[in-house]
UniProtKB/TrEMBL annotation:
It comes from the Bacteria. Signal peptide: none annotated. It comes from Amycolatopsis pigmentata. PROSITE patterns: HTH_LACI_1, HTH_LACI_2. GO terms for molecular function: DNA binding. Keywords: DNA-binding, Repressor, Transcription, Transcription regulation. This is LacI family DNA-binding transcriptional regulator. InterPro entries: HTH_LacI, Lambda_DNA-bd_dom_sf, Peripla_BP/Lac1_sug-bd_dom, Peripla_BP_I. Residues 22-75 form the HTH lacI-type domain.
Length: 346
């Protein structure tokens, strides 16, 4: 009776024998050449046509699958694109990763994602690991704690892309992809004013450049409309657990609040829940405007400033695979998607 397909017959002790994977040494032996010659052939190096033919025939007969690690050693770097993000729960990052992965697949690259959970220590550790793995390129969306290392990686020949902010005087190979956050803030202001909102509170996710720029754009737009934004009208919620306190702080200012702006998409659910838990009706009692679109935002009628995160992810990955000679700093325009949560335009 023949053995089952794909399983070696048992040995005398009743255990299955492991099928040995074909190695590059086996191919070299079968082709009558050195391991280095096989590696050159598999990686497109210059060898005699007859030698290359023997190597490919031997590889086919032995059903040899090249070892990606071995290939990367000979090439000096792997084909993997490293991506370090700080929040896997955000819709922005999900679409960003989709764009990155699409470009990577077209260029025979894998993508290695790492989540920092907003930890600077994890961020540093992940970037170090990507560097040690000799990734084809690095895309990073987190803070400034790894800027020194990404500069060094770029200078050493590993293209890097910073998403969400730009760097001053970047070296060759260090690029950036970001939203025009000032424009996003101004869009928020103009829409709220057009909807008749006069007393606006802001919930920020912290002091990262994008949050500060959105606040500045909002302040500019409101000031131009004769509705300056007081300093105490901007509160910070570092995580969702702080949102309730942030909403209370805005309501306790002694000013009748008729709109709340959420500057970070990852805080949207918590802010919306905090408002409705207090019995506030949107938009009758308070207008609500946030950043980043969601699959359920249309059903709830939430007005959003949408970021083209899918396109940003594609361009970030294209900067890795194209590796332009000069550093590029790309800025994308936001889009206002007006729904019912701020009321009707006057």
């Amino acid at each position: 009776m023949s053995a089952a397909v794909g399983v070696s017959p048992p040995d005398r002790r009743g255990k299955e024998r492991t099928v040995k994977r074909t190695t590059i040494g086996d191919v070299a032996k079968a082709a009558g050449v050195s391991v280095a010659t096989v590696s050159r052939v598999l990686n497109g190096g210059a060898v005699k046509e007859a030698t290359a033919t023997r190597v490919w025939e031997a590889a086919a007969q032995l059903d040899y699958t090249p070892n990606a690690l071995t290939k990367s050693i000979f090439a000096g770097r792997s084909t993997t694109i490293g991506v370090v993000i700080d929040d896997l729960t955000s819709p922005f990052y999900l679409d960003l990763m989709r764009g990155i992965d699409e470009v990577a697949a077209k260029h025979d690259s894998l993508v290695m994602f790492a989540n920092t959970f907003h930890s600077a220590e994890r961020e540093v550790a992940h970037v170090q690991t990507m560097d040690e793995q000799r990734v084809r390129g690095l895309i990073i969306t987190s803070g400034e704690s790894t800027d020194t290392r990404t500069r060094r990686m770029a200078a050493a020949g590993t293209p890097c892309v910073i998403v969400g902010r730009s760097l001053a005087d970047p070296p060759r190979g260090l690029h950036s992809v970001r939203l025009d956050n000032i424009a996003a803030g101004r869009m928020m202001a103009h829409h709220l004013i057009s909807c008749g909102r006069r007393s606006i509170g802001v919930i920020s996710a912290g002091n990262r450049p994008g949050q500060l720029e959105r606040t500045e754009g909002l302040r500019q737009g409101l000031t131009e409309a004769g509705r300056p934004l007081p300093e105490d009208a901007v509160v910070v919620a570092i995580d969702n657990a702080e949102v309730d306190g942030a909403v209370d702080a805005l309501q306790d200012r002694g000013t009748s609040l008729d709109a709340i702006v959420c500057l970070a998409g990852r805080r949207t659910v918590a802010v919306h829940s905090a408002l409705t838990a207090r019995g506030l009706r949107i938009p009758d009692d308070v207008g609500f405007l946030t950043v980043d679109d969601f699959s359920w935002a249309p059903a709830l009628g939430i007005t959003v400033i949408a970021e083209p995160s899918y396109q940003m992810g594609k361009r970030a990955a294209e900067l890795i695979v194209d590796d332009p000679d000069q550093p590029e700093q790309l800025t994308f325009e936001p889009q206002l998607i007006a729904r019912a949560s701020c009321g009707e335009n006057i």
